[in-house]
Amino acid sequence: MKKNNWKHFRRALTICLSNPKAIMFFMAFFPLFMVSNSKPLTLFIMMTHVTLISLIYQTILVIAGNALARYISRWKYITIIASRFAGIALIGFSLKLAYNMK
Fold this sequence. Notes:
By secondary structure, this protein is mainly alpha-helical. Helix content is 81%, strand content 0%. The longest helix is centred in the middle third of the chain and has 33 residues, at 40-72.
């Protein structure tokens, strides 16, 4: 990995580890699957499993997404169409959200 990539990786890891929503998820979700006399090691093992599975899954998504983006970027018109489609989709999602807020 290039030196610049490690910089981005460390920054993303810091942000993810300090994300209050993720911390609250762990605090609220895992106790549901533990009994009252569970050892702290049980919680640690559960959190480690979920963290590793998430890391593997998200790494695969990033690698596949990057490969697809590089592949698509070779064709100018496909890039333009994909950008416009993404913009239309975001506008559509925002309209649906605004409609459901009523």
